[in-house]
Amino acid sequence: MTLSRIRTTLRTAFGESSDLSVFEGKVGDRKCLYAAFEAMIDKELLESSVIRPLAEKGVREVIGNTYSPAPVRRIKKAAEAVPEIASGATALFVEGEAGGYIFSVKKWERRSVSEPPTSSVLKGPREGFTEDITVNTSLLRRRLKDPHLVIRERKIGRHTSTAVAVCYLSNVAAKETVDLVNERLDKIDIDGIIDSSYVTKFIEDSPTSLFPQVGALEKPDVVAAKLLEGRVAILVDGSPIVLTVPHILLESFQDSQDYFKRNSRVTVTRFLRLFGALIALFLPAVFVAVQEFQYQVLPLKFLITILNSTNGTPLSPTLEMVLVLIIFDILNEASVRMPRYVGMALSIVGAIVLGETAVSAGLLSSPAVLVTALSSIGLYLVPDDVGTYSLLRLVFVATAALLGVLGILFAATLLVRHLVTLRSFGSNYTAPYAPLVKADLKDGFVKREITDMVTRPESIANANPTRLKKENGDD
Question: Is residue 447 within 8 Å of 266, Cβ to Cβ?
Fold first, then answer.
């Protein structure tokens, strides 16, 4: 195929895109054709390491010898260059030669490694993943300098050809888990993968459940720790969020800083997170149930205070609570979508001014606003599940309005039943408490010393249970 036909083929393949650069050059005494997207290549590196050496010495002298100007690969047909150029490579076609060459001189703007905004720490590593998959894999390699760390990449997405990498320790992760992850990824057939959240819905055991069965992490040190326990990580190019499986409910109450603090403090903190989640779920519902049905359970002085505060409000306790919950969710959503500094002012001023005005006007009662505020604060003690608990508390309020405390107990029973039957890549979602795995309680809500964590979690399938060997040689 002549150079002019190759030029036409490439232009046609990319729909006459204006940012496609196709230019002629010299390779020794022969003409050649280069094709690339200028915005995706390092032009200085291309000039110094590819164009100039090839023009002076020729293909055989440069590529055929030990000296290689840049990572290069031979292709047999011009059509094979199309997906490579779309990925940021540079294609070279030499007059009189069949096929061509692909040079990797990619370069594009990328965000530097910094502390992730959703996982800030007081103590511990502050590095966070970026949107570049090569940077993310290097961050993992820095922490796990082990030949057993396997990173296998595939392309997913008919139009995006997004790089998706599966990472695991071959001597730790269970083969069944790795095979299951690969099997589910291979079944994905979609136009494009824009973010790792796209992948989540395709690989979860129960995609319709409100509870996430796939971990979403932004810190390399946390992902490395998960890999050491036998989990599998999934990296998606273009996303700073790394997925880990299996994922269990207990992980929502753990934090990376827990392993850099005193165990007594960590234990108290984890119970505080659990208590905050229970307050977020049940406090609004209990408040409605007591007002609507079981007001006699309150102490007399407390009951009189509530009656005085709610006297004259035009709405029933149920409608009032639902309205306040919705208003708080609207304020939260607005603060997230507004610019950072404006959003902060909106959330504080909006909650105070709006709540105070509504109470002063007699539209809402002060106990309802207080209960909702406490519930909303409790939500953010478990930040990964804010959306889940926000929806569930509305469900509990609805059941409390219909059946009182009995309705809350009924809804709680259904919730517990759902959680104990939920699984994530072969692991029980409520482990190590249901079913009870005594060996894993050492890193449950009560955390023990790291020197006591001799074995890896039994709740997570792994190929090597021994994590620590003590000085006396005992496992």
Answer: yes
DSSP state of 39: G
**Residue 275: which H helix or E strand, with range?**
helix 263-292
Q: What are 218-240's pLDDT values in tens digits?
A: 999 999 999 999 999 999 998 99
Q: What's the pTM?
A: 0.84
Rounded Cα distance between 334 and 352, Å, is: 15
Tell which phi-psi region holds residue 219, choosing left (phi > 0), alpha (psi between -120 and 50) or beta. Answer: beta
CB 432 within 8 A of CB 459: yes
Pull the structure tokens for residue 402: 């219909």
DSSP string, 283-346: HHHHHHHHHHT-GGGS-HHHHHHHHHHHTT-SS-HHHHHHHHHHHHHHHHHHHHHS-HHHHHHH
Indicate the helix (H) or strand (E) that contains 208: none
E strand or H helix at 413, and its extent?
Answer: helix 405-421
Q: What pLDDT was estimated at residue 344?
A: 60
Cross-strand partners of 338 = none
CB 173 within 8 A of CB 230: yes
- CA separation for the pair 85, 253 (Å, rounded): 45
**DSSP calls for 162-204:** EEEEEEEETTTB-HHHHHHHHHHHHT---S---SHHHHHHHH-
Give the Cα separation of 112 and 130 in Å (integer).
Answer: 7
